[in-house]
Structures are given as C-alpha cells and as structure tokens.
Specification:
Elements lengths: L7 E5 L2 E5 L5 H16 L35 E5 L14 E5 H19 L10
Antiparallel strand pairs: 1-2, 3-4
C-alpha cells in the first residue's frame, strides 16, 4: 500500500509515477472551497495564534490576507487544523485559512518534529 503522505503512486509505461497529494483534483477543489468560504465569511486578516510561530510569537498574526496573489508571505492559504502527516483528513472541517508565512512556519516545525522523532539512535560503542 502506498504511503498517503507521499502522494498517489501509479504505473505509466512500466514506470512508477508519484504525484503530490496537493496536486489532486480533490485537494484543489477543497482548497478553492476553503478560500471561498473564508473570504465570504469576511476573514481579511490571518487568525493564527501559534505560540511558536516566528512571525508573531503567540500574538494573533493579524496580517492582511491577499486572496488574489499566491506565493507571497501574506497570501491566503488553506492549512490543516490536524496535520495530514498526523492523521488529519482532507475535509472542509479540518481546514483553516491562514497566511502563507504562518503556514510555511507551521509546516517546517512539523517536519522538524517528525524528523526528530524518526532520527536513528546513535550507537555509542561496539565491542567485538
């Protein structure tokens, strides 16, 4: 069974093709819906209050969200409330909209924590 975190695996012409989970039609539709719902609800500023976020250190981020331009620090992006890597589902109930900067920090922090948890133990000495 393929690892769902790595994306979907399929065979094409005898080669294994790995696709990103966020490149699927399901995620793109969910992303579009989450952004539309947040904008319709009047969410104009980043609501992130993560105490470890480097951009605001526990205060509400409050940066104005940009719904029209992607890949900027203040671009509005969907974020999992319970991270996908920790078993969170791709559902509208598990998505919040925050700024790209907070989302990038959150993802980096999660990735580092996962790597620390999976780090191989160091062998102190081997005696033969």
């Amino acid at each position: 069974m393929p690892d769902s975190r790595a994306g979907a695996n399929s065979r094409a012409g005898g080669h294994i093709v790995v696709t990103s989970r966020t490149g699927t039609a399901k995620w793109k539709n969910l992303r579009k819906r989450a952004l539309h719902n947040a904008q319709a609800a009047g969410l104009t500023r980043c609501p992130c209050r993560d105490v470890t976020c480097k951009s605001h250190r526990g205060r509400t981020c409050n940066v104005p969200l940009d719904y029209t331009t992607g890949q900027r620090p203040n671009s509005a992006v969907p974020d999992h409330i319970k991270h996908h890597a920790l078993g969170g589902q791709d559902t509208i109930e598990n998505i919040q909209v925050i700024c790209n900067r907070c989302n990038a920090h959150d993802g980096a922090r999660l990735g580092n924590a996962i790597m620390r948890g999976k780090r191989p133990q160091t062998v102190q000495s081997i005696t033969f």
